[in-house]
Amino acid sequence: MKFAMNSPIMRVAVAAGMGATLLLSAAPACAQLGGTMSATPRAASEVIANDLTDASIRILGWIDEGGTTIHEYATGDGLIFAYTWQGPTMPDLDRLLGPYKASYRAKATALLATGGSLHASRVAQSDVVVDSGGQMRSYVGRAWLPAVIPPGISPADLQ
């Protein structure tokens, strides 16, 4: 049986497919540094792995609406201690940084005013560190909480 592209069945099928795609690529709702990782993945595009080291580390990955891959790192208890990203757009750092966003923005603005680079930056504070860099359509970065990184894990492990 053939269906015409403008048939009601095809329109429903295409709409359902588009809706499923949006659901599968959506990021977890309230995830942020210092928050709690969901116990189960919310979409099929998310991946959980527990093999970074002997420590119980959980990693949740997804692709945001801009096509950027984001990885969320949490302790065995689910406390989110880091994010990494790589892709064609910058992720929503305000959402990822949560309660750390205001101090990050203030320090980043001050660094930029004193001659910092637009292409690469490191905003290091006692409570949060954010490395970010790249150029148009190619951004990479990571943000982590130094006091919460589990023993045996270093920022270099966050990829």
Q: What keywords describe this structure?
A:
single chain, 159 residues, alpha+beta
Give a description of the structure.
- The chain is built from three helices and seven strands; from the N terminus they run αββββααβββ.
- Helix content is 23%, strand content 28%.
- The termini are far apart.
- It is globular.
- A hairpin with a 2-residue loop joins strand 6 and strand 7.
- It has one domain.
- With 159 residues, the chain is an alpha+beta fold.
- The chain has a seven-stranded antiparallel β-sheet, covered by helices on one side.
- It comes from Paraburkholderia humisilvae.
- This is DUF2844 domain-containing protein.
Task: Give the helix/strand class.
Answer: alpha+beta
Mean pLDDT: 78
Tell me the span between the first and last alpha carbons: 48 Å
- Count every beta strand, where a strand is a DSSP E run of 2 or more residues: 7
Q: Widest sheet: strand order?
A: 1-2-3-4-7-6-5
Low-confidence stretches: 5-29
Instruction: Tell me the radius of gyration.
Output: 19 Å
Helix content: 10-25%
What is the string of SSEs from the N terminus onward? HEEEEHHEEE
Q: Shape from CA axes?
A: globular
Total number of domains: 1
β-strand percent reads 25-35%
